[in-house]
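Notebook B, p. 112. Complex prediction, attempt 2.
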Amino acid sequence: MNPAFVAILYAPGTNCHEETAAAVERAGGRAELVLLYDLAAGQTRLESFQAAIIPGGFSYGDHLGAGRVFGALLVAELAGQLHKFLDSGKPLLGICNGFQVLVEAGILPSRSMGQRDMALVDNQSAHFEDRKVRLLVSSARCVWTEGLVGTILEMPSAHGEGRPLFPNAKSLPAKHVALRFADRSGRPTDAYPDNPNGAAGGVAGVVDSKGLVLGLMPHPERASLPAHYSQDGLKIFQNLANWLDRRAFATQTSA
Amino acid sequence: MPIQRIYTCSRDDAEARSWLAFLRRRGFPQLSDLTIERVVWLEGSFDANRLMPLFVNPVYQTAAPASALDPAKGPIVEIGYRPAVTDPETPSILTAARALGENGIQWARLTKRYQFFGVDDREARALAGRFLFNKIVQRILSPNESVRALRPAGEPDPVTTVSLSELSDAELAQLSARRSWYAPVSQMRVIQAREAIRGRPHTDAEIEILIQSWSDHCYHTTWKSLGLLKKLSEATARIDHPLVISSFKDNAGGLEFYEDWAITLKGETHNFPSSIAPFGGVATKHGGVIRDTLGFGKGAYPIGGTTVMGTMDPLMPEDEVPRGSLHPQLILSESVRATSYYVNPMGIPMMHALYRKHPGYAKCLALGHSVGLIPKQYALKDDPRPGDLALLVGGETGRDGIHGATASSTQMTTETLEKESAAVQIGHPITERRFTSAIPALRDAGCIRSISDLGAGGISCAAGEMGAETGVRLNLDAAPLKDRSLTAWEILLSESQERMLIAVPLAKLAEAQAILNRYEVNYASIGEFTNSGRLEAFWRGEKVVDLEMSFLWGACPIDPLPLSEPSRKLNPLCIPEPVTHEDWSGAFHSVLGHYHCSDQSAAGARFDSTVQGRTSVGPYGGKNHQMPSGFFAGAPLRGKNYGFITTLAINPFYGEIDPAVMAKLMMIEAVTKAVAAGASYRELALCDNFYTPPARPEVAWNLTRMVETIADFSVELGIPFISGKDSSSGTFEMAGRRIDAPLTLAITTLGRVPDVTRLVTKDFKHAGNQLLLVGHSDPDTLGGSVYADTRGQRGDRLCDAYTASSIRDVWDALLELHSHSGYVSASAIGEGGLALRLFEAAYGSGLGARIDFEAFERVLPTPTKRPGARRDGLVFGEFIGSVLIEVSAGFDLTDSLQSVPYVILGEVITEGHLILTDGAKTLWQEEVAVLAEIWSRTFREALE
């Protein structure tokens, strides 16, 4: 059986791919760095991976809007592969800029590729916010946060465009909210700087209705080692590793 | 080609809201609203509708072929970059448009249209000119401007020759000024003599290269004349430190790390461009020093950075700002914006962000550092070999930064703001980020024989230095240009950012190209290394440069600089000692609220401190993650606890009292900060960054004393300098008045620690623990302190308490104690004295402290034990080298601390208060939360 490789999909301007790969490996997964260029050139295919993560950074300089160019390129060049990947029930995670990319590609929250129904806009402060945040895990179905419902995860957050907006100023149905910024007492908060970007309802992580695609603004990979101030982020990658193990086991037994 | 405009609007524009609030605070309270419309200008033939997904997310943006703003409702100001400046977004737009199938798009530009409500046209232009754009790189578009082409075009000037023969000294000086060379006459004479020997005049390109290569910025003529570069490198050679891999030779210094890795350090100032165009200047400051890391050995990877800015008081009244200088508030806020703009996309964690003020920083201080990581086997460059290709990597070459090196070597005048406009540009971090990813891949594949960044002097300097031992032949027609009208010398001298020059073995070219293609990095082979011993360049079929390397790098005359000991007019401090509770409160409030001591996280929290996943102790720590840590530590090797640590010390006040002592104290402060955390001083190296006025005899005397002091002291301590940089241009001149920068020296340490999780932070850990001050304390040395500055005084005595051997005793005692986990919190005393450290440690922990003067005074050295020793001196004195530590109540200290002075000051308390007592009597007590409010206000008000 092929090892369950996790694709860390990156593009020019992505700058968190190495630590994300390291966090996957520390959690027991196997990560492979995959350049968007290689995918577009047909050097490798998304289907050959069991899961994928789009890491943080400033892909294409965040020009025209964070994640905008990368998202447009995904739709223009890889829509077929992405559909196949998602339809086969594989998990996909977007961290920070990766979340912005998934939103700009229309994949989050409703898997409507090429059709955007969400935006991540400038923080309310109108500048980049480098903070340590607490995330309250909500009860939305999500393979990445399984078993963590109701717990607080501490990890760094660092972005300039992380405030969710939805069409017609509506809010997001609860089943899509995976994570919320929380205050010191563990309650969801709109207050700065515990909520560094001004997200309404403290929304910090969004999941699709199948519970497979998660996007979050904070950085779990930066809280995954003994040398870090927190190792809470590792739990998200451990969930991935566990899911991949279970899936491998299921495939094996059915075969 | 036809040009189309697309006007986009956002229904939720935080940037517009933020500007509105800012402008209302900054003198335009009548401004009632502000709207920003963003315009994309596209040239070529294409279907704009197919590009719409790029320009709008329909959830919050709309687009239209015409402006949605109604001019009747309020004045509109449209701002864009000047034609010669490339918009950072242009390459991304072109890439994405082509991916969407629109190949007919030729060029793109962006502008912003600001509509103001509640102000008239004149006020709108005034506020735009003051806050929203910088005329050096940007312009206001006129309402009916007809734009025929977006991409700069035109024909280059032909190459000319410039004969110096028979010109008198006065005529040489005139020519030098007219051409913006700023070259001393002695250099002009050497070129003149050379012309006679060659029997033909130099081309403009040749003279430009010579002048540029011999500028103070590139050739360090001031320092060479004073023999200072040699002093530091000789000191390092004498120390012969086993961890030093590379010092003063390469673009950065290198230190052995663990497991076959090396770490690197470099600091650079970028003062002149940052003074006249702070956004572009500071952005390119970061870009440049990061490229020094990339250009170390065969290419190191940047893993940490700093930013240090010195300005005049950001809150100074508008009419006191020297004419020709930007308002310091603007320099501050634009510099913060620029650091965020450049460093965050580079994905490099911010280690230290420091902001200082001094009335002498009319030409601001703009310093940045970069720390790198590299496999040890690649830490030393090879010399290029004849036949190796010169590969130019990164951005296109434009008319940016022409004469940047010579301009930054000279003093700033009211005219420089206008005249040297080309010396500043906007950085494009995405371009640098692309090759930052590609360089380690190139290096590991054996494609890099040698590598250097392009900075001052551009292609000519990088190729000339790399090929100094061999020779190099350049084909300028191969250089990708932003602007086809560049002539030969401009291509050679352009300081366009985000470029590297790599010597690639011919056999490795195909592999190098494949790697660069995958990382989407632009490149061009612009020549080859030869064995001619000459720098040659061809352009449009003509040989435009033919210089002997031996002349280029060996003939620069070094003018002798006279020295003269300055007389110092120092006044003793005259500060009444606090007596009442109110007196103490006032003193604490003014010190904690002083710009240098205050909470600077309003800037610092805009810079990513955890990217790369290596950060162990970031710039802000404690329980609330808002306490300044005082050091940065990371674990660069993934999955390992091996750590690197950096600290920084800078003080613009001490040098006014005694520059040499200041220099020594900066070394002690920087090292002590690392040692207090638990890092061995035996595994540290140093970087020096000087910023001084041009070397008039008095300045030259001071500078020499400073450099001699740190060189000698480094030998005595056994701690080597591995890199550094000098800028001798810290003067601003206007209408007969000269403003000199304070003699400034920033010392940075870089060291390694075996286990980064064992480092000790500043925040208090447990109530009931004892607080000790380890080291000397002299209450009568408030000179140069923040406390004195809050009273508008400087004083006449610095706290110069240590010799090399006595400070090593303190460090050894601390390290011994640390090895037994003897202390649980620690912080080195610096600006703001004990007061600031007690406050920070309490603030970061939620605990408090009680300090008893009686205990303190029991152990003071005899001369100060007299009745009436200043108690404010104990609390606010800056006892550089001494350390506040927290020790468990029952811990036996006698063994570790027997050879050093120390005093048990008091204890950590549960209550979040700071308390000063005299035995049983409470002199002063205040809530930490109240102090925090004052501490956090100053800088925020200056910035926002």
